[in-house]
Design brief:
Layout: E1 2-5, H1 8-17, E2 22-25, E3 38-44, H2 53-63, E4 64-73, H3 80-92, H4 100-107, E5 111-116, E6 122-128
Parallel strand pairs: 1-2, 3-4
Antiparallel strand pairs: 4-6, 5-6
Length: 129
């Protein structure tokens, strides 16, 4: 397996936890891998922390044949959307909190599987190709 993070500290932590993985300190907007290098790219609870989201998603789509995201999700409709976005911003401090439907539109890929949690603090998962 391969792991990527922009933080050298997080890479060092990951290496201690899972030493059998090849880790790289890299920016998600400029991945040093060939096109279609990976059968699967997993983006777990990271998208909302990326300021240059369009570039990062483009890179993930370039290097991966299938994309899996597991991401905190806002509601689709107001006022719950605003409340859930405010909650995530206050406790997590990320840049952007979208609903699972918005993540799906943002990636613009065929969705193979979808799972959305319930409640104000919820996560969603998309498997896309």
């Amino acid at each position: 397996g391969v792991g990527v993070d922009v933080s050298e500290e997080m890479i060092e932590f990951a290496q201690k936890q899972n030493p059998d993985v090849n880790y790289y300190v890299m920016d998600s907007t400029n991945l040093g891998f060939e096109d279609n290098s990976f059968d699967v790219v997993i983006l777990e609870a990271v998208l909302h922390h990326i300021s240059e989201l369009e570039e990062a998603v483009s890179e993930a789509k370039r290097v991966g044949k299938t994309i899996i995201i597991y991401e905190c999700c806002a509601f689709d409709t107001q006022p719950l959307k605003m409340l859930s976005q405010l909650y995530w911003k206050l406790i997590d401090g990320g840049y952007r909190y979208m609903s699972l439907n918005e993540w799906e539109r943002f990636f613009a890929l065929e969705v193979l599987a979808r799972n959305e949690g319930r409640g104000l603090v919820r996560y969603g998962c998309l498997v896309m190709r």
